[in-house]
Amino acid sequence: MAGKDHYPHISAKLREVLKPHLPASSPEADPSTLSNYEKFSVLHTVLSLDVLFKDKKLAGSISLSLKCLQQTSSIVLDTSYLSIHGISIDDKSVKDYKLKDRMEPLGSALEIRHSLAADDEVTLKIDYETTDRCTALQWLDPQQTNGKKLPYLFSQCEPIHSRSFFPCFDTPSIKSTFSYFLTSPFNTLTSGLLKDKKDSANNVVYHFEQPVPIPSYLVSIASGDITGAAIGPRSTVYSEPSFIDNCQYEFEHDTENFIKTAESIVFPYEWKDYDVLILPSSMPFGGMEHPNCTFATPTLISGDRENIDVIAHELAHSWSGNLVTNCSFEHFWLNEGWTVYLERRIQGAIHGEDFRHFSAIIGWNDLTNSIISMGNSAKRFSTLIQDLKDRTDPDDSFSTVPYEKGFSLLFHIEQTLGGKEAFDPFIKHYFNEYKYKSLDSYQFLDSLYSFYSDKSDLLDTIDWQTWLYEPGLPPKPSFNTKLVDECYTLAAKWVDIIETAPEKLSSKFKSTDIAKFSANQSGVFLDKLCSYEGQNGFTWKNENGKKAIDLMTNIYSKYSVSQNAEVIFRWFRLLLTANITSSYQDLANWLGTVGRMKFVRPSYTMLNKVDRPLALATFEKYEMIYHPICRSMVKKDLGLN
Ligand SMILES: [Zn+2]
């Protein structure tokens, strides 16, 4: 007998495509947790933790208010490298529990024997502390900070590191409201609204509340020499004191404008305040969308307000990801594809439609490069919907694909339906339908077909099999190329002169060629130059290619002195593509100043290709300044495991 049809609105044609994949329950079960989360809802969570800088650990307790949904004989939580000191249920001590053997990469299940019937409500309290093997927390020594005076702590839980921070149902399928009581000697921030601060001995107890239910991966902590400055009526930027003026300058012009624009596209911002914390350089990501307080890399602070798109992205997560959440990291594109889509809608509303398309083309190029660089693993990791059922580490499945293939699909749907105006009502509908919930890709499709029930023929023209399940590049959407054409034309001119009249190089180019380029346009120009390598026999590595690079270094000198990491990185990539040996050490030095994986990983990969001993020596020198996630990924990239 067939089970309940959880997806009644999808068309017969789409159903044929989905048939081998449709799950028995909805949303689909999360394979990246060892917990029995499906038997519970979490009504509220209280985290009470002391930040112990000397021992580099957090110690305290977590209280989970649980409602049982199905009869069970145990409560099974995710943990990873935690030290459990005691457990109670409704204030009665529980002795019958077991921390099971580790099952890589998912950690150790904590099994608490306790019978519950459906609708039972209990409060489970666990006293515990983190250990030195915690993968969610990075403890920086003073010399790893800007100020060099105080230590610093920050967390990064996504995708499955919360379990090494606190015992929990570590799945995006479970959401809870939170109270946090965090005791630290230094200023402390978390994913919530500050209620009050109380002095206690040499410490302060910071009480935060998060009234909107959030999944475990959005919980955060940062503590250190942190100060704040206003960047809008509901926004503050935080950073170490020496950096705060630069941070304020970078964001004060755009933040409120972004929030208002996003509100007009989706619906009013639900979280009250929107703040940004600029972390020390070892932050491995561009940004992390912690509710109320985005954590971001200092590579955004370029002095030109040109990397602000990351803030539009993290802000957009306030709707996609933080309100409407993927039920597991197999459906991560629902978080990231939607967020990139909204980020570009925000940019388009402010800077015009040409800009949205320009940004989409950059994304398409990133997607292309990312799939090429995956090599053999592209077959496995470049599909839109991922398969993590063999307990693959979600960190290994993360790439540009969920972001840019996800964006491209939404853009393609928008275009298929007749453009933005036709798609806009669905945006509001979808985010309203699924806010505070977690969903799978099939529910998204069901919602789409339900909303456009009169246009299912149009939706059926989409090649769903290819978009959802085939590896590699999807069909390329048609973009308006106005803003990239200037960059492509200049790049083509360089290649043409190098090939046909290299003796005329110095007379054909001048510094004003790039004077009007935005940092993003410079990035596109440099990417395009690199992309010629190996095409129709062209190479930067021969005498004429190197001569051209020499000339470019002189007349486009703003690239070699740029403070914008997006530009610096691409400039290095061109130099290394041309085997300019004098640049290898410069790149190695730069790798001591950045920790963002977007730059660190490909930089090591390209340095490794041209000078492996230097790549290894550089990694050995700097590995301890990188975040544990970054360190382990670079190790894999360099074949050091
Ligand atoms: Zn994102």
The molecules bound to the chains, other than polymers, are: zinc ion
Low-confidence stretches: none
- The percentage of residues in β strands lies in 15-25%
CATH topology of the largest domain: Immunoglobulin-like
CA(first)-CA(last) distance = 48 Å
What are the defining features of this structure?
binds zinc ion, zinc, aminopeptidase activity, Neutral Protease, domain 2, protease, alpha+beta, hydrolase, 5-stranded mixed β-sheet, 38% helix, Immunoglobulin-like, Serine Threonine Protein Phosphatase 5, Tetratricopeptide repeat, Peptidase_M1_dom, 641 residues, 23 helices
What does the model show?
- It is a single chain.
- The chain has 641 residues and is of the alpha+beta class.
- It has three domains: 12-26 and 328-469, Neutral Protease, domain 2 (Orthogonal Bundle); 33-223, Sandwich (Immunoglobulin-like), CATH 2.60.40.1730; 482-637, Serine Threonine Protein Phosphatase 5, Tetratricopeptide repeat, CATH 1.25.40.
- The chain has 23 helices and 22 strands.
- The protein has an eight-stranded mixed beta sheet with strand order 5-4-8-2-1-11-14-13, with no helix packed on it. Strands 16-17-18-20-19 form a five-stranded mixed beta sheet, with helices on one face.
- Strand 13 and strand 14 (203-214) form a beta hairpin.
- Helix 4 crosses helix 5.
- It is globular.
- The protein binds zinc ion.
- Residues 313, 317, 336, 339 line the site of zinc ion.
